[in-house]
């Protein structure tokens, strides 16, 4: 996947705010591909990267067919997403 401009990531994040069950599976797939690119392009602590990670975790958690591994991944992702800004702002 080519590196994207931050504006494109913002559009992707806004589209990724998943409310319906039918879109969660598609969202998980998109997030799995785009989050590593966002980390590389925007940085680990950028608010759009963090928002994408949060939405990915929520898509995992809210999926009615979520496996135990999916739920563990959701919890780990949320914990990491909350922990990172604390670590970044504490060192500033």
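^ structure tokens above, recovered residues below v
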């Amino acid at each position: 996947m080519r590196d994207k401009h931050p504006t494109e990531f913002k559009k992707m994040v806004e589209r990724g705010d998943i409310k319906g069950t039918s879109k969660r599976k598609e969202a998980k797939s998109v997030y799995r591909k785009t989050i590593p690119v966002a980390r590389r392009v925007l940085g680990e602590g950028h608010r759009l990267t963090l928002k994408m990670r949060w939405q990915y975790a929520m898509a995992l958690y809210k999926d009615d067919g979520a496996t135990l591994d999916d739920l563990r991944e959701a919890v780990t992702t949320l914990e990491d997403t909350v922990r990172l800004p604390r670590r970044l702002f504490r060192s500033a």
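The mean pLDDT is 80.
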